[in-house]
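The authors assume throughout that readers already know how a fold can be written as discrete tokens. For illustration, here is how one protein appears when written out as sequence plus structure tokens.
>
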Amino acid sequence: MSDTTTTAGVAAGTVTATTGRAMSDQAAGPAPDMLAWTCPAPLRDQSRVVMGHGGGGALSAELVEQVFAPAFGGPELSSTTDAAALELGGARLAFSTDSFVVRPLFFPGGSIGDLAVNGTVNDLAMSGAQAVYLSCGFILEEGVPIDVVTRVADTLGAAARTAGVHVVTGDTKVVEAGHGDGVYVNTSGIGLIPDGVDLRPQRVVPGDVVIVSGPIGVHGVAIMSVREGLEFGVEIESDCAALNGLVEAMLAVTTDLHVLRDPTRGGLAASLNEIATASGTGVVLQERAVPVPDAVANACAILGLDPMYVANEGKLVAFVPRERAEEVLAAMRAHPLGAGAAVIGETVAEHPGMVVARTGLGGTRVVDMPLGEQLPRIC
């Protein structure tokens, strides 16, 4: 691993050490005032929606499983992929929708307009599809400057042209002042799935190699640094990008990829746990192999975050048959968006549905599904 990366366990180790010292101090001093304690994570027994329900973790999954899936029904909803794979008139289509509520609207490396295009294009790409058409819905807050809306629309259009996708329909609504946050955007997309491509977690088997396309945690830290006015000695730019070209290069090597996922909300940890649960396999990571930029690792260590749980917007994780892993990795590294690709682990028959990481000290830790989102409103 190069000097520009460090292990994903820095933040976790820092928190553990701090907690241990705090417990020792409490044992020696007066009893803590339990009534003054607060829990930053939302409790799971909720009668109302909390921010964690939109974080891409366990609470989001419960909301889908307990509320939306039973209400909508249909076998298409049983899949845990980022886009629905459908057949229509003899063609295999991928269909996906996503809403974007990021704050701030503009950030280093991108904007809500870039996210709206790239997020949906990437969801389609994770099913192997090349995005063809997008719809775009704007929800505007009364009082937002027209030049801000124009700037968002311009960046959205530019991102669509870069990704090679056409925005063909849309809608605009305006809500009263104080009932929105400037601009919200929804995009839906349709793409074509090539013959022979079948990407879904149920195809994962023990022995598959896990590959990530590059350094993780960049988007979430970029958003946080702007939102909170934090400086880490170097500007961190979002990795926001359309991954359809990278996926196309991977499929040119072999259509026998097992599953792809773009680790957005909930970060790499959420994506790996979703795949492990759906496939019934265990995942073993080599923590030191997970590429984390120094700036991201330092920011996470300061703030007590684990980079594994921080959102990305231009990365993917792939589960690849072992016999094709070297070829796929080489193809990824030959593409600009996969230059930092790395093998980070493998699937095993043991501990099905569980993700564990082998640490640099020789131990093993569980990388659990996040409850909510460490950094809300990041996409």
User: Anything to note?
Assistant: The mean pLDDT is 86. Residues 201-366 form a domain with the Phosphoribosyl-aminoimidazole Synthetase; Chain A, domain 2 fold (CATH 3.90.650.10).
